[in-house]
């Protein structure tokens, strides 16, 4: 295998890995989006509660009463965490997309170089 062929194979493997990483990150972002929606819905429902309402948490097979203030704070904390994670994952997606695009351009350059070598044209 020629040097350019080996480079092409290596860059192709790097590009495929980046594409796999990107798919994983997009999947993670989708799950975070679903969690955000679910927790926002819970927060919205909690806004309709009166102080007389009791919130229960399922612990194993038992419903345990919870303090409204604690539960509302927990949901708010969870929302902040999810938003932070979404921001972090969005940054990772952008970075991976940039790296993937760079690898793609490198692949095109190497392929062009190989085609020129095979056709006997001088490479510049």
UniProtKB/TrEMBL annotation:
Residues 79-113 form a coiled coil. It comes from Paxillus rubicundulus Ve08.2h10. GO terms for molecular function: protein-folding chaperone binding; unfolded protein binding. It comes from the Eukaryota. Belongs to the prefoldin subunit beta family. Gene3D superfamilies: 1.10.287.370. Pfam families: Prefoldin_2. PANTHER family: PREFOLDIN SUBUNIT 6 (PTHR21431). GO terms for cellular component: cytoplasm; prefoldin complex. Keywords: Chaperone, Coiled coil. The lineage of its organism: Eukaryota, Fungi, Dikarya, Basidiomycota, Agaricomycotina. This is Prefoldin subunit 6. One of its GO terms (biological process) is chaperone-mediated protein complex assembly.
């Amino acid at each position: 295998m020629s040097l350019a062929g080996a480079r092409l194979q290596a860059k192709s493997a790097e590009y495929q890995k980046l594409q796999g990483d990107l798919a994983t990150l997009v999947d993670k972002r989708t799950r975070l989006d679903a969690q955000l929606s679910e927790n926002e819905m819970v927060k919205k429902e909690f806004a309709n509660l009166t102080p007389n309402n009791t919130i229960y948490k399922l612990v194993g097979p038992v419903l345990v009463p919870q303090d409204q203030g604690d539960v509302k704070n927990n949901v708010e904390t969870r929302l902040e965490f999810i938003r932070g994670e979404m921001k972090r994952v969005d940054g990772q997606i952008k970075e991976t997309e940039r790296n993937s695009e760079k690898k793609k351009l490198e692949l095109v350059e190497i392929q062009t170089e190989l085609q020129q070598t095979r056709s006997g044209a001088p490479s510049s």
